[in-house]
Input
Amino acid sequence: MALSATAAPNPQDPTAAGHAVNQAADTSTNSTAADLATALGPTGMLLLFALAVFAGYVLSLSLHPNAKCNRCKGMGRHRGSLFNYATRPCTSCKGRGTHPRMGRKVLFKQP
Output
């Protein structure tokens, strides 16, 4: 039996590969928000939205780390219920009128 040396067929057409490279270059320069949304899909868009909301919340925490005390309405003083003129420091906020926000305690490890 004699083995013949024949060339195997090439599965990749050189013109098709060049066309794919040109098409990839065209899509990278003409990307729109719709193309990005299609590429990410609904789950990716939801994660991107959640990341943007979280970044906004962290920015809000850094700009406004304290919240008004609910018990004394931010006054720092508690008025007596029987004698309205009598006041004492609020026991909840210790007379400051503010509380640290929950995210500040969790994310920044501050009291």
